[in-house]
Amino acid sequence: MHELLFHRQKALEDGDLRGYAAQLGLDVAAFDRDRASTAVADRIRRDAGSGLASGQVLGTPTLFIDGVVHRGGYDPPALLAALVAESLATITALSLIAFGAEFASAWLSLVAALETADRDSTRRR
Known about the structure:
Shape: elongated
Strand order of the largest sheet: 1-2
Structural class: mainly alpha
């Protein structure tokens, strides 16, 4: 649905939305009920308020990965790289807390070696 909405931003009237739901094989009656529900409206208000309160949301789409705003591309390779980078940062921080600076230093050395190996293998392709 998000791709249809994104590519048809000038056609977002009720009839348009119902047509997209039907095109995707959704239960149109359930779609209408859900769109009109207070629970959905409350969720939208909560999400919009949270984005504004963060000071990080400058427009749509805005994506957060583990609480950090993602300013890169939205293609699968870029998103995967961002997820891996954020995971490595989290693991590094947790290892420092749990096991001390020596372990964290060894972890960072391993990560650097893996990044170098990845760059080298990419160049060879």
